[in-house]
Amino acid sequence: MTHLVGPGDDRAKRSADGPQAVAPEIADAVERLTNLWSLAAQGAVLRLSLHQLRALRALEIAPGLNLTGLAERLDIGLPTASRLCDRLEAAGLLERTLHPHKRREVRLSLTGHGRNVLDDVAERRAWALGAALAGMEPEEREALGRGLRAFLATRTERTPLPGDGTSDM
After folding, report:
1. Is residue 70 within 8 Å of residue 108, measured between CB atoms?
2. Integer Cα distance of 154 and 42 in angstroms
3. Mean pLDDT, to the nearest integer, of 89-111?
4. Which of 67, 64, 63, 59 is nearest to 86 (CA)?
5. What is the DSSP letter of 24?
6. Which of 122, 5, 77, 37 lies closest to 85 in space, CA to CA?
7. What is the pLDDT of residue 112?
8. Which residue among 36, 75, 110, 129 is least packed, with the fewest CB closer than 10 Å?
9. How far is residue 44's CA from residue 46's CA, in Å, rounded to a whole number?
10. d(Cα 30, Cα 55) in Å, to the nearest integer?
11. Would the CA dihedral through 131, 135, 137, 143 be positive or negative?
12. What is the DSSP letter of 94?
């Protein structure tokens, strides 16, 4: 776990304008946001795993995906994706239908119940995030919004990781 620097921390005295200087603070904030996100989702009517939520979200964004497409989007193997779909179908959240033009292909789509569960999770997450943001001053929220927009504008599809030879940091 990373930790935010505080007034008594020597790291607070060094320059905080470089990417590596602010990275631990952002990592801590992301970890806390992830925890907030998970806790809000766990309060939903139907408790789902992170993989199940990600699968439902992927099908919400791209209805009609086949099993291979879903596995690729979730970065999991086909057997894992198949078992995941079995559980979601058994829970009434997902349905499988034959592709109208490709006899061997099965399309995956959300059921009405699946959409309702995703809506419930989204509402709970928005409420939890709103409650957290309410503790900030309006100018702090605006600065956070500007920073997040800038981050999203510069983010590449694949962010380089340490040791992969593509990072120049």
Report:
1. yes
2. 32
3. 88
4. 67
5. H
6. 77
7. 95
8. 75
9. 5
10. 21
11. negative
12. E
Coil, strand or helix: which one is 20? helix
CB 122 within 8 A of CB 39: no
* pLDDT on residue 161: 58
Structure confidence by residue, pLDDT tens digits, 110-125: 999 999 999 999 999 8
Which amino acid would we find at residue 97?
T
**Hey, what amino acid is at 35?**
N
Give the Å distances, CA to CA, from 132 to 11, 14, 28, 61, 84. Answer: 26, 28, 15, 27, 32
Rounded CA-CA distance 35/94 in Å is 26
* DSSP, residue by residue, 104-161: T-EEEEE-HHHHHHHHHHHHHHHHHHHHHHTTS-HHHHHHHHHHHHHHHHH--SS---
CA distances from 127 to 37, 44, 79, 94 (A): 10, 12, 36, 26
d(CA 167, CA 48): 36
Separation CA 91–CA 93 (nearest Å):
6
CA 75 → CA 29, 67, 110, distances in Å? 25, 12, 20
Residue where the block lists tokens 């997040």: 148
The pair of three-digit structure tokens given for residue 120, joined into one six-digit string: 């419930």
